[in-house]
Amino acid sequence: MCDCTTEVSHSPWQAEKKYRIADFFNRHWERYKSNPTEYIKPEQYKAVNAIRSCQTAVLGVDMYACKKCGTITEKYHCCNNRFCPSCSWMDTVRWAETQTSRMMNIKHRHAVFTLPHALNPLIKLNRKALYTILMQTSADTFKDWQMHKFGVTCGIISVLHTFGETKQMHVHVHMIVSWGGIDEKTGLLKEIGQEFVKFGFLKDKFRNKFEDKLVQLYDQGKLVNEFSDRIDFMQLLKQINNQNWIIHVEPPMASPKEVITYIGRYSKRACLSEYKITNMEGEYIRFKYRDYKNRKENNRPEEKELELHYSDFFPRLLQHVPLPYFHIVRYYGKYHPKSKINKTFLFNPKTQKQDWAELQATETGRNPLYCEVCNCFRIYSFTVFDTRRYDMRVEKFDMSKHEHLIYVKNNRYYNAAA
Question: pTM for this structure?
Answer without folding.
Answer: 0.83
